Amino acid sequence: MVKNVALIQELNGNISKVVSLYSNMSSNFSTTFHNNRHHKEG
After folding, report:
1. What percent of the chain has pLDDT over 90?
2. To 10 degrees, the CA torsion angle through 14, 20, 22, 27?
3. Rg of the chain over all Cα atoms, to the nearest angstrom
4. Is NADP set as a keyword in this record (predicted)?
5. Is the pLDDT of residue 42 over 70?
6. 3-class secondary structure for the chain?
7. d(CA 16, CA 2)
8. 0.70 exceeded by the pTM?
9. Residue 8 phi, psi (nearest 5)
10. How far apart are alpha carbons 28 and 25 in whole angstroms?
11. pLDDT for residue 32
12. How far, CA to CA in Å, does 11 sit from each of 6, 15, 28, 39?
């Protein structure tokens, strides 16, 4: 039982890391995309 709790906590930690990485990646991508579009129009 204690092992399960530790595993679940580790999983939750990994998931939150992945989510934060993914949100950073997507925000960087949208910023880059927006900047590229802006440069082409100008």
Report:
1. 52
2. 180
3. 18
4. no
5. no
6. CHHHHHHHHHHHHHHHHHHHHHHHHHHHHHHHHHHHHHHHHC
7. 21
8. no
9. -65, -45
10. 5
11. 85
12. 9, 6, 26, 42
Kindly state the tokens that stand for 28. 């960087």
Q: Can you read off the two tokens belonging to residue 8?
A: 């679940």
Residue with tokens 């990994």: 14
pLDDT value, residue 41: 63
